[in-house]
């Protein structure tokens, strides 16, 4: 209906919080446990369309107990990150990819559509308002969680013709604990140990696994609890013998080829795999280095000089049996999970049906994590009111 209003950033109202929370010490940050002071909220009414967007103090959302989101899990979301550049400019990482994935999740749930470029403009405004929450330390970022839920109040099983779109932010650091062993003052990304699960399946052909819907995640809580009770870090999702994803991350392996080159493999996007932004980015980087692999960097001491192999990137189905076979034959260089929240995490051990296979893995040393004890700057820092230009303020 062309009479319905679309999201309109020009109509944004900014209502700043009177009281701001103290900024947390970075060393205490646990993924997803801290929210910033403000949120962006817009709602869709079937008669009028999208409301005027508002940035307002973070607050609870009121829902009718009959609402579609509560009854039928009509919920989709994105995970994206903003980083502070060395000159303190907030930078979003490939947000266009998150926007198009959100549009496809919204469509899959038959929720009302909106202009994703308008949403991106609004997210940028929110990030500027919350700029002080962006940790000034490499390896840390502001995790942004756009969420769309169906708010129609009926127990009738049908599409929700009303919706709430909101965006919240959470400062984030390393997703998994870093190892800080003896003689190793720097942080290392510890390889995680996975329990492979085939009795519960994350996604199947024709299902919703290729979309970022809340209902794809909650069924993982039970197998994940079983795995963590037994001391495993995460689950490896299988479908039959096929390797799918690692917890909430996409899966990659690196293999030695007979000609000395390296195969870089990940399962294909056949509708059962989440089209991860980090997944796509890692493949883009690997492809860009295919012809001349030299990872030396002038700004850090991370060098892989002398590595003259070429990377061959491919998206192919992969079985656990083959993976373990490659590991035994010494062909496997490494397996790892990737995602927006965790970035990249090496895999140490895979357990399946009582057997454990140790994979070769490097503890990824990330110079990002080497500055011990960094924190937000304290003292009289500028807070949001001075960051918003006056025409945005009410
Ligand atoms: C992400 O990596 O952003 C995810 O969505 C994984 C999880 C935190 C839900």
From TrEMBL:
Residues 357-394 are annotated as: Disordered. One of its GO terms (biological process) is L-valine biosynthetic process. Its EC number is 2.6.1.42. One of its GO terms (molecular function) is branched-chain-amino-acid transaminase activity. GO terms for cellular component: mitochondrion. Keywords: Amino-acid biosynthesis, Aminotransferase, Branched-chain amino acid biosynthesis, Pyridoxal phosphate, Transferase. Its cofactor is pyridoxal 5'-phosphate. It is an enzyme of class 2 (transferase). It catalyses: L-valine + 2-oxoglutarate = 3-methyl-2-oxobutanoate + L-glutamate; L-isoleucine + 2-oxoglutarate = (S)-3-methyl-2-oxopentanoate + L-glutamate; L-leucine + 2-oxoglutarate = 4-methyl-2-oxopentanoate + L-glutamate. Belongs to the class-IV pyridoxal-phosphate-dependent aminotransferase family. This is Branched-chain-amino-acid aminotransferase. It comes from Dendrothele bispora (strain CBS 962.96).
């Amino acid at each position: 209906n062309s009479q319905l209003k679309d999201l309109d950033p020009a109509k944004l109202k900014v209502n700043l919080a009177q009281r701001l929370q103290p900024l947390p010490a970075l060393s205490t940050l646990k993924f997803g446990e801290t929210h910033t002071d403000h949120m962006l909220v817009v709602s869709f009414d079937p008669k009028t369309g999208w409301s005027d967007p508002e940035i307002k103090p973070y607050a609870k959302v009121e829902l009718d107990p009959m609402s579609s989101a509560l009854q039928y899990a009509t919920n989709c979301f994105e995970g994206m990150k903003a980083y502070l550049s060395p000159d303190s400019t907030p930078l979003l990482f490939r947000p266009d990819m998150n926007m198009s994935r959100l549009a496809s999740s919204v469509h899959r749930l038959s929720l009302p559509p909106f202009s994703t470029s308008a949403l991106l403009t609004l997210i940028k405004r929110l990030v500027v308002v919350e700029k002080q929450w962006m940790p000034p330390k490499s390896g840390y970022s502001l995790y942004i969680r756009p969420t769309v839920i169906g708010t129609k109040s009926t127990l009738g099983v049908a599409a929700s013709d009303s919706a709430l779109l909101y965006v919240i932010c959470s400062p984030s650091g390393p997703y998994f604990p870093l190892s800080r062993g003896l003689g190793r003052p720097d942080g290392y990304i510890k390889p995680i140990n996975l329990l492979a699960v085939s009795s519960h399946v994350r996604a199947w052909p024709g299902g919703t696994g290729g979309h970022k819907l809340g209902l794809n995640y909650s069924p993982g809580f039970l197998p994940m609890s079983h795995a963590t009770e037994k001391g495993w870090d995460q689950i490896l999702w299988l479908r039959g013998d096929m390797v799918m994803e690692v917890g909430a991350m996409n899966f990659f392996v690196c293999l030695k080829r007979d000609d000395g080159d390296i195969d870089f493999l990940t399962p294909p996007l056949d509708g059962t795999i989440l089209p991860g932004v980090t997944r796509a980015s890692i493949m883009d980087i690997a492809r860009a280095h295919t012809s001349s692999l030299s990872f030396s960097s002038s700004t850090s001491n991370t060098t892989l000089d002398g590595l003259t192999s070429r990377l061959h990137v491919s998206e192919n189905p992969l079985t656990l049996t083959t993976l373990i076979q490659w590991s035994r034959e010494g062909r496997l260089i490494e397996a790892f999970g990737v995602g927006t929240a965790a970035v990249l995490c090496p895999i140490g051990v895979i357990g399946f049906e009582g057997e454990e296979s140790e994979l070769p893995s490097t503890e990824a040393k990330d110079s990002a994590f080497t500055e011990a004890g960094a924190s937000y700057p304290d003292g009289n820092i500028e807070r949001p009111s001075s960051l918003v230009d006056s025409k945005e303020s009410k």
